[in-house]
Amino acid sequence: MSTPKTPVQRSTKRRHREKSAGITRMTLSLGREAAQALRALAKEHGKTQAEVLQLGVLMARKALAPAAHGTSPAPTRPAAALADLQAQMAEPQAAQEQDDDAAPPMRAAERRALELGLAGEVRQ
Fold first, then answer.
1. Inter-CA distances, 69 with 12, 66, 73, Å
2. How far apart are CA 108 and CA 14, in angstroms?
3. CB 3.0 to 4.6 Å from 30: which of 11, 35, 99, 109, for a disulfide?
4. Cα separation, 23 vs 17, whole angstroms
5. Are 38 and 28 in contact (CB under 8 A)?
6. CA-to-CA distance for 107 and 123, rounded, in angstroms?
7. Neighbours of 124 (CB within 10 A)
8. Does pTM top 0.85 for this prediction?
9. What's the rounded Cα separation, in Å, for the pair 86 and 36?
10. DSSP assignment of the chain, as one string?
11. Is the Cβ–Cβ distance between 29 and 19 less than 8 Å?
12. Full pLDDT tens readout for the chain, 124 residues
């Protein structure tokens, strides 16, 4: 029979297992709207919040990578990316102002995922 372990011992063992598996623990601060979006995405798709964040990072890497022809992004690219991000952040506010009967427009992030070939079939 094994002896009971203290919470500290269990935490230490869990952190060691995660480190061995290549998992890095991070602390993240998000605004209220971003945190709500993260929770909603995870719940809607049956994923953990960590899985949603990992997918977002991989999508960002692909979206921000240099062009396929080997040149580096134009110097104005960060400003364009920031403008695109601001437009995406404004979309939830605009959607709330829409009439409930109207279908919501495609979000910039959804459009970008389609352009990058990251969108798949929707299963119901």
1. 47, 8, 11
2. 39
3. 35
4. 9
5. no
6. 19
7. 3
8. no
9. 17
10. -PPP--HHHHHHHHHHHHHHTT---------HHHHHHHHHHHHHHT--HHHHHHHHHHHHHHHHSPPTTSPPPPTTHHHHHHHHHHHHHHHHHHHHHS-TTSPPPPPHHHHHHHHTT---PPP-
11. no
12. 577 889 999 999 988 998 898 888 888 898 999 999 999 999 998 999 988 998 888 888 888 886 555 555 555 455 555 566 666 666 655 555 555 555 566 677 777 777 777 766 555 4
Tokens encoding 10:
């269990």
User: Which residue, chain included where needed, has tokens 């437009």?
Assistant: 87
